[in-house]
Amino acid sequence: MILVTDVHTHYVPRGWPALPGTGARPALRVDGPATATIMLGERPFRTVTDAAWNAEVRLAHMDAHGVDRQVLAPTPVLFAYDQPGDAAARTAALFNDLALEIAAGAPGRLLPFCQVPLQDTDAACRELDRAVAAGHLGVEIGNHVGDRDLDDAGIVTFLQHAAALGVPVFVHPWDVPRTPRTGRWMAQWLAGMPAETHLSLLAMVLGGVFDRIGPELRICFAHGGGSFPFWVGRMDNAWRERHDLVGTSAKPPSGYLDRFRVDSVVFDERALRLLVDTVGVERVLLGTDYPYPLGERAPGSLIRGASFLRDDERALLLGGNAAAFLGLPAAVPDPVVGEVTT
After folding, report:
1. Residue 176 gets which letter from DSSP?
2. What confidence tens digit (pLDDT) does each residue in 199-252 have?
3. Per-residue pLDDT tens for 127-142?
4. Which terminal Cβ of the chain has fewer Cβ within 10 Å, N or C?
5. Around Cβ 279, how many Cβ atoms within 10 Å?
6. Rounded-to-integer distance, Cα 63 and Cα 119, Å
7. Helices (H), ranges, the chain
């Protein structure tokens, strides 16, 4: 039986000490037994429920929707990329340890991914080593650090380190610019996040990162890769026609579609078909953005209901591909015929 695995969920601990650093550091205002608000200084950032920190609540939701495993990853506002390296390193260690406490409520089902101080390459590599030794299975990173994109030399060094360790990397958009135009209708989320993910994938390709790091790098991009899959043809055309500006990679963008994975948080069968057709059926992984309201409320429902998928392909998207990404078994072993179980 395939182990249905959600690779895109987030946690928020139920409280933490005052964080090091400067400015409006994240804190949690507990509003009730099952509700809280992430605060940035005096400003409310996001309301969360106990699904963010309570393993029993998460497991009940997983069981109700046939999900066997969840990746438990940081909420990006906690990354601390805007802080000095030492403060960001201490912040990462604090949250990584708290994540392990949440995951301990369901070993083997809640799979913790750490965060690192990505602005400081040496500190990021050290914290990755420490977190993995402590029990983290992978790492979530933001798609940029200020104006440094994923082809920045220091970030590439960190990705090379993760690849050498065999640690999977999940890339999540964050810090989307707020302007008068993106401040309406949740446009930061509806347009900005897909654009940010597209831009970070473009940096991986045209910045030559995939030319410098081999296929041992297991990397997955949130939200279906953003708008990148839809515009592969446009990027290839630019690579050919404006090679003086865009020909910075060894191959056109379509030549790297087998080098990364994407999650399935696209909400529409037509978009899911495009993903499968573009990056391949073995490179799309179930994701939900749980427990946030813009996520897939019934995990796996899009994949389970997709009319174009064969049963074997559906099994890959629901869990087989995630197992390969995570380096875990894909299925529960079938019982031996005649074996007595208790």
Report:
1. P
2. 999 999 999 999 999 999 999 999 999 999 999 999 999 999 999 999 999 999
3. 999 999 999 999 999 9
4. C
5. 23
6. 38
7. 55-64, 85-103, 121-134, 153-165, 187, 193-206, 209-212, 232-241, 243-246, 269-279, 301-305, 311-315, 321-326
